[in-house]
Amino acid sequence: MAPGLYFIATPIGAARDITLRALDILRDADVLAAEDTRTLRHLMEIHGVPLRGRPMIAYHDHNGDAARPRVLGALARGLSVGYASDAGTPLVADPGFQLGRAAIAEGYTVCAAPGPSAVLTALTVSGLPTDRFLFAGFPPTGGSARRSWLKELSDMAATVVLYESPKRVGELLRDMVSEFGAQRRAAVCRELTKRFEEITRGPLDELAEKFSGTPPRGEIVVVVDRAPPRVVSAEAVEAELRLRLGRMSTRDAAEEVSRALGVPRRDVYQRALALEREA
After folding, report:
1. Quick check: 111 and 4 in contact, CB under 8 A?
2. Whole-angstrom Cα distance, residue 221 to residue 231?
C-alpha cells in the first residue's frame, strides 16, 4: 500500500456490510489504529484477516493527545496506517477529526474507504426527503439546552438526522413536538442493520406517545422532515419594505426583507420597485 492515513468505515451491525476495499486495507496496512482495538480484532477474525504481528494503536477521544504522535510517527516513516472507529464512518460522530487534520497539516496523504454509515442508512429507510439533509449529531442532555438546540433546527429547510440515547429518546420526541410541531413527519430508527432492526414512522406527536413508556433498546437514529415552506402574505412583505425604503436603497431593502421573511429576493425586489413607482 502507498504511504498515508486510510479512514475505514466498518459495519454498524451486520458484519458482512464491510467493503472489499476496507478488507484490503485491513490486510495490507503497515499499522492499524482503532477506536476499540478489541472490536477491530474481532471484525478481522470474522473475515479471516490476520494481524501478522503488525502494531495496533488504540486511538479515541480520551487518548488522542497521547496516541496521535504515534500515528503521525508511523506516517513520518513512510508507512500506511488504517484507522477504524468502533462502527460506521470515522469522524461522523466518531473519533478521527483531530487525527485527520493533523495528518493533512503535515502533508501526508489522507484517504477514505467509504462504507456503512448510520446517518445514510437511516435516511434511506426513513421515507423522508434525502436531496438535502443536516446531520446534527447528539442533542444536549439537559431539557432547556435541548429545547434551545432544537429551536435552532426547527426552521431548517432540510431533513434533520440526529443520534440519541435510548434512555432519552422519549424526552427528545416530546421536546420535538413543542419545537417542530405535532404533525411534522419523522422516523425513529432502532438497531439499524441488526437482527431486531425497527423503523417507526409517523407524525411527531404519535412517535412521542409511542416512546413515552419503557425506553427502547439499542442504537437510535431520529430523522425529521424539513420545515414546511413559510407562507408570507403580500401585505407583510409590503409592510416590511415600507419600514426600510425611506432609509436604504431599494436593493438593500429587498435583500434585508428577503432574509427576514424567507421570501425569494427577486419577488421582494419587484414589489419594492412597484412601491416606489406608486409613491
Report:
1. yes
2. 30
Q: Cβ atoms within 10 A of the Cβ of 103, count? A: 21
Quote the pLDDT of residue 183.
Answer: 95
| CATH class (in words) of the domain with range 119-224 | alpha beta
> Exposed, middle or buried by CB within 10 Å (0-12, 13-18, 19+), for 143?
exposed
Show the cell assigned to 94.
466518531
Is residue 49 within 8 Å of 32, Cβ to Cβ? Answer: no
Main-chain phi, psi angles of 52, to 5 degrees:
55, 40
Q: Is 4 left (phi over 0), alpha (psi -120 to 50) or beta?
A: left
CA angle 263, 267, 269 (to 5 degrees): 105
Report the SS3 class of residue 239. helix
pLDDT in tens, 242-274: 999 989 999 999 999 988 887 788 889 999 999
CATH number assigned to the domain covering 4-116: 3.40.1010.10
